[in-house]
Every structure is written in C-alpha cells, then in structure tokens.
Amino acid sequence: MRQTWSNKLTYLLTVAGATIGFGCTWRFPYLVGENGGGAYVLLFCVAMIILGIPMILVENIIGRRSSTNSLDAFLVDKKDGTKINKFWKIVGFLGLIGSFGILAYYMVLGGWVMTYIANIATLNFDLSNVDLVTKSYTQNFYQQQIQNNPLVVGFYTLIFVVINWYILKKGIIEGIEKFVKFLMPLLFICLLIVVIANLNLEGASEGIKFYLGVDFTKLTPKLFIDVLGQVFFALSLGFGVMITLSSHLNKNENLIQTATITGIINTIIAVVAGFMIFPAIFTAGLEPTSGPKLVFETLPIAFANIPFANIFAIIFFTILMVAALTTSITLYQVIISVVQDKFKLNTTKSTTITLLTVFIFGNLPSILAYGPWSEILILNRNIFDAFDWISANVFFVATALFCAIYVGWVLKDDAIYEIKQGSNAKPWLIKLWFYYVKYFLPIIISVILIAGLSTF
Asked: Cα(287)–Cα(278) distance, rounded to whole angstroms?
C-alpha cells in the first residue's frame, strides 16, 4: 500500500518546499537584476498563470492517477483497459536523468552556502566592517574558498548530502513530511526577518523602485521566453517531482485547487525573495547586474551596510540552505522511489544507493569542475555549468512537453476523469483547461525548448 500524505496542508508545504529552492532565492533575483527589474517580475507572474499552474496540474494528474513512481507512471493502463505504448516510459527516464543532472550541481551549491555560513559564523569572512568589505574582499573570498578550494567545498557538500540522507532514509511520512513541517515555518520566519530589516534601510525605496518598477521597453518576446524557462526551474517542472509527490495524494484532494495554491505560493515567495536583496543592494550603491554571483559576491557587500551584518548574513544564507534542502529531498525522492520499486529495496538502502551514486558521478565532478578538472569542457562549458545547462534547457523542458502531449493526446478522457475526482469545478472550465493543454501548451513549451537549444 502506497503511503499518502497526512493532510492537504502537509502536501502543500512539501510541494512549496520542492519549488521554493535556489530557483526562488538565488536564480530568480539575479535574473531580475540582469533583466531590468520590474519587467521581469511582471512577466514571471504572467508566465506562472499561462504555463506554471496548467503544467502543475498536468503532472499532478499523471502522478495521482498512477500512484506509482515517475517511471512507471506513464505505463498504467487506461480505465477502459487500453494499454499504454511502452514508448512513454522514455518520458520517465528523461525526468530521472534531469533530476540527476540538477542534483549533480545543486548539492554543490548547497555546499557553497554552508561554506559561507561557517566562515561568517567564525568571522573568517567578517562582514561587520563596512570599510573592509569591498568588492575585492568578497571576490577574493569566493575565489579562495569556492572556486579554488574543492576540498572545503567537497567537505560541506558531503555534510549537506548527509543531512539529506538522514531525512530521506525515514521515508515519506516520518522523513520528508515530518521535517518539512519544521523547515518551511523556519524558512518563512527567516525570510520575514531579513525582508523587514532590508525595507528599513535608507536606500530601500530605490531598490523597490528598480524591483517593481516596470520599464515597458524591456518587455520583449525574448525576455518572455526566458521567463517561461525560469518557471520550469522555479516550479520543479519536468523533474518528476510533482509526479512523485502527487502519487501519494488520495482521490479526495482537489487537484485544481492544489495546483493553483502551489503556483500562487511560489510566485509570492519568489517576489518576496527580491525584497531580501534589492533594497540592500541599492543602499550600498551597488549594481544589481552581477548575474549568478549576485548572492555570493555582491550581496555580502550590501550586508556590511546593515547593523548586525554577520547575524543577518547568516540568517540569509540559512534561508538559502533551508530552501535548497526542501527542494533536494524531493528531487532525490524521484530517483529513490524508482530504485525502491524496481529493485524491491527498503527505504534506507534505496536512499543510500541513490545519494552515493549522485555524489560519486555528479557531485564530485561538479566540485572538481572549479579545480583539477576545470579544463574539461562539455558543450563548451565546465562540468558544473554543463549539468545546469543540459538539465534546464533539454531534459526538463522536453519532459514537460511530453507530459502535456501524454495528458492531452493519450490519457484524454482519463485525464478529465482524474481531475474531476475531489473537484467541484464547472465542466466547461475543466474542458477549457484540457483543450489548452492539448493544443496550446505543447506549442508554448516547444518554443521554450527551441529557444533553450539555440543558446548552445
């Protein structure tokens, strides 16, 4: 008998944890900074409506209907006994490969964050002296402790992996569900503390103006496509995460409601996360356009302008770590569920095998990509960046595309039947969603896939 979530709130907290990771707290803010602020935020909110929520519902239907792992979910017979073509199992494999790809470098990012926390706490990276904390100071720390110190990063990455292992070996209910109930409130509390502190800074108004002010000249088709791609990352779409988590839902849950709430929560948290960063950046007179290094090199300078800088920096990086943890445990669970079902292993063995395999073949190469293996290039990128680019631009988007086609063209009436279970939505609304998924969503996702591949 497959375990089911204790209640809807627990499921929503877990899904929120899965989606509120580095996509919200690291990737979203630096993309906003690179793309002119409010224009990106506005399009992100629009993209969540036209792509995010419909796709969450697609994956929820596949998962709950099958009540199995993300690999076998595509082979469950239809209600009338019709067999599903075994070709569709490939979609499950794409999701598994994509999950491995993101975990390969994602856990290393977790190691980076823990490195910052440890060094700030021991004052080895002291942010309390505004005159000392310059761009060269933060850059030197990043280069010495992150880019050129694989041993230290490897140590903290291993710690982060072990924390994941401890939670996951306890299973869905005693592990993921139990810890999410603690981790998500902790994340929200820390988030509010940093946001309130930043909004009281002298230059906060300028940061807010940049962050929320929309420059309509920046609203271009390319920007919109880029934002649509970010929605995949932000909502863990195409990872198999939503399929795996929703496979533990009972038939009484309203899938439309849960998908909508998930999209809204993710959007709110992503937008709120910006208030942790841009007021501080503008108060310190810094540029928000430093890209992926915004959080690791630029933001520490901004924290130096805040009273109790080290304390607030530790709280901020704790937010990143908790957000990363709530996402990584659900990503791992995608693979663990397959290993457990296919090889009939208990939870502890499945967890150990999964995490050890990802660490050896994914985490270690990503760590070494900034050290001894820095000259090894894949698609003109180092190993770390290659895992990121291939997962985000190929596997996730392709998996989502096939999921939409699977629901619209293969499941058909079965998908409509599944969505009706536990729902009181009007039949016309369900039909409208179905035809949107069947005809329009594949076109939108195909455009994103082509745009992503063009960056090669």
From this structure: 10
